[in-house]
From TrEMBL:
<dbReference type="InterPro" id="IPR008948">
    <property type="entry name" value="L-Aspartase-like"/>
</dbReference>
<dbReference type="InterPro" id="IPR047136">
    <property type="entry name" value="PurB_bact"/>
</dbReference>
<feature type="domain" description="Fumarate lyase N-terminal">
    <location>
        <begin position="3"/>
        <end position="166"/>
    </location>
</feature>
<dbReference type="InterPro" id="IPR020557">
    <property type="entry name" value="Fumarate_lyase_CS"/>
</dbReference>
<dbReference type="InterPro" id="IPR022761">
    <property type="entry name" value="Fumarate_lyase_N"/>
</dbReference>
<comment type="pathway">
    <text>Purine metabolism; AMP biosynthesis via de novo pathway; AMP from IMP: step 2/2.</text>
</comment>
<feature type="domain" description="Adenylosuccinate lyase PurB C-terminal">
    <location>
        <begin position="185"/>
        <end position="300"/>
    </location>
</feature>
<dbReference type="Pfam" id="PF08328">
    <property type="entry name" value="ASL_C"/>
</dbReference>
<comment type="pathway">
    <text>Purine metabolism; IMP biosynthesis via de novo pathway; 5-amino-1-(5-phospho-D-ribosyl)imidazole-4-carboxamide from 5-amino-1-(5-phospho-D-ribosyl)imidazole-4-carboxylate: step 2/2.</text>
</comment>
<dbReference type="InterPro" id="IPR013539">
    <property type="entry name" value="PurB_C"/>
</dbReference>
<keyword id="KW-0658">Purine biosynthesis</keyword>
<dbReference type="InterPro" id="IPR000362">
    <property type="entry name" value="Fumarate_lyase_fam"/>
</dbReference>
<dbReference type="GO" id="GO:0006188">
    <property type="term" value="P:IMP biosynthetic process"/>
</dbReference>
<protein>
    <recommendedName>
        <fullName>Adenylosuccinate lyase</fullName>
    </recommendedName>
</protein>
<keyword id="KW-0456">Lyase</keyword>
<dbReference type="GO" id="GO:0004018">
    <property type="term" value="F:N6-(1,2-dicarboxyethyl)AMP AMP-lyase (fumarate-forming) activity"/>
</dbReference>
<dbReference type="Pfam" id="PF00206">
    <property type="entry name" value="Lyase_1"/>
</dbReference>
Amino acid sequence: MDKVISELGRLAKEFADVPMLSRTHGQTASPTTMGKEMAVFAYRLQRQRNQLAAVPYLGKMAGAVGNYNAHMSAYPEVDWQAVAQEFVPSLGLEFNPYVTQIEPHDYIAELYSAIIRFNNILIDFDRDVWGYISLGYFRQKTIAGEVGSSTMPHKVNPIDFENSEGNLGLANALMDHLINKLPISRWQRDLTDSTVLRNLGVGIGHALLAYASTLKGISKLQIDTARLATDLDNSWEVLAEPIQTVMRRYGVPEPYEKLKAFTRGQRVTQESMMTFVDGIEGLPEPAKEQLKKLTPANYIGNAAEQATSLHHYLG
């Protein structure tokens, strides 16, 4: 987990100021930077990693049904609750004062819940990078002897991210059963948890395979800034947002409606956008000049700063 987060932090820093067209609902949206999008995933994963590390491991020594019955029969003068409360932590466990024949396993459910949340975020990352590769924003380093397709020799498929996604899904399915099963035991105990506990490591194993695959995929990524720039230059319509916002600031009537009529379903170019800005009645000339300095590549807000400040939040 830490290695994945570290690698995403590296990508955030490396691509901090590489502008990229956003996509919401699959459609062009206000630009961002590739580094900032990597920072989003690094921060999300770090939160789940921290929550995972904070889950306590609980233990008990309260006897067959949790009441120290046999202990007190043998040595009634001993304060067994106090002994247990001192002994269990000496093993590196947190003492659970209320148990039955078993420690109820709630902490195991908490543990796997945190891992599943981490995994779900990583699935989100795998799919996004898969999409960026499909768009041509990332190229993949070719590996000698690696086959992309049995019939199409030109292909370099994003197999590492696909492998990761598949293993994460399997890991989550297994761990979800553990989460739902282990806290439930009839009365003071039944044995339905026994076979399940023997498989505690299976989901973890698939998760580890997934993390390794994601890291392998990341190691092959090469950003294509030219392709990113081309997409940005073909998407001048994204500047409708700042233009209508500035129009609103200066009290120009119906700014949203005017930009909607100008851009929606239309082919917008740099020239047509500049002409539109020049023709806005009631907008001060300094504001027009400021808007005309905007391009899809520099309209990125504070995305670059967010990417470079990630280290303050990762610790």
